From TrEMBL:
Pfam families: MazG (PF03819), PRA-PH (PF01503). Residues 37-110 form the NTP pyrophosphohydrolase MazG-like domain. CDD domains: NTP-PPase_MazG_Cterm (cd11529), NTP-PPase_MazG_Nterm (cd11528). Keywords: Hydrolase. Coiled coil: none annotated. InterPro entries: MazG-like_dom (IPR004518), NTP-PPase_MazG-like_C (IPR048011), NTP-PPase_MazG-like_N (IPR048015), NTP_PyrPHydrolase_MazG (IPR011551), PRib-ATP_PPHydrolase-like (IPR021130). PANTHER family: NUCLEOSIDE TRIPHOSPHATE PYROPHOSPHOHYDROLASE. It comes from Cognatishimia coralii. Its EC number is 3.6.1.9. This is Nucleoside triphosphate pyrophosphohydrolase.
């Protein structure tokens, strides 16, 4: 009964959520779907929830953000509960591990180091500490520890940052742009002469160097592409609205008509700025 009181307490906070998760996974009285899940089946939901948090922030949908953060927190609770059942660790271990990491990585806040340093210097110090942590885990290679499961754009960025730390990097953006031109030409040639697999490889090379250009410009490629996706969605929806005013849907239009409407939408946006 005490557990039921906690579950139905609207101010129960973290203990309430942990108890709800425990009950959902109870093999005798829990939810059949939750009971059947394992780390691998829940992982895709974890990734999805992280993107929904980012989406709410991009849209400045602050009323939604609380709920999206809750969804993401629930993913951590779910994984921790499954780990606890296997005798691996529990949620408190997760929290303690993160607390230990933050204290160790901020000696200028929680230790004896001076706080009189720039954000850039702190970033360099952070990377030095992380490199020492990787060495302690027997991760000797420069690229060791960059998670394979990351989104491709993010993983490309992290791989390039790691390589740049040891001097494997172009000195300025002009060299990167030259490489983009080179890779674009190779892709164009591949399109007409090579196999689909080889064309995909050349396309990947071009994407990789585009990520590198973003890094040199101080841009996050994932955020930039998300913004462009949002812009494309917004503009195409406006094209559909203009077509609807003409009694049409896109499949009843032509590329020339939709392209002209697209230009109108772009012009309207520029005029409002």
């Amino acid at each position: 009964m005490a557990d039921d009181a906690l579950i139905h307490n609207p101010k129960g906070g973290m203990p309430r959520l942990l108890e709800i998760m425990r009950r959902l996974r109870d093999p005798d009285t829990g939810c059949p779907w939750d009971i059947e899940q394992d780390f691998s089946t829940i992982a895709p939901y974890t990734i999805e929830e992280a993107y929904e948090v980012a989406d709410a922030i991009d849209r400045e949908a602050w009323d939604e953000l609380k709920g999206e953060l809750g969804d993401l927190l629930f993913q951590s609770v779910f994984h921790a509960q499954m780990a606890s059942e296997k005798g691996l660790f529990d949620f408190n271990d997760v929290a303690d591990t993160m607390s230990d990491k933050m204290v160790a990585r901020h000696p200028h806040v929680f230790g004896d180091e001076s706080r009189d340093k720039s954000a850039d210097q702190q970033t360099r110090d952070w990377e030095t500490i992380k490199a020492a942590e990787r060495a302690g885990k027997a991760q000797k290679g420069t690229l060791d520890g960059v998670a394979i499961g990351l989104p491709a754009l993010l993983r490309a960025l992290k791989l390039q940052k790691r390589a740049a730390r040891v001097g494997f990097d172009w000195p300025d953006t002009s060299h990167v742009i030259d490489k983009i031109v080179e890779e674009a030409k190779e892709l164009e040639e591949a399109r007409d002469t090579l196999t689909e697999t080889e064309i995909a490889e050349e396309f990947g090379d071009l994407l990789f160097v585009m990520v590198n250009l973003g890094r040199h410009l101080g841009l996050d490629p994932e955020s930039a592409l998300r913004a462009t996706n949002a812009k494309f969605t917004r503009r195409f929806e406006k094209v559909e609205e203009k077509l609807a005013d003409r009694g049409k849907i896109p499949s009843q239009s032509t590329l020339e008509e939709m392209d002209a409407l697209w230009d109108e939408v772009k012009s309207d946006e520029k005029n409002r700025k």
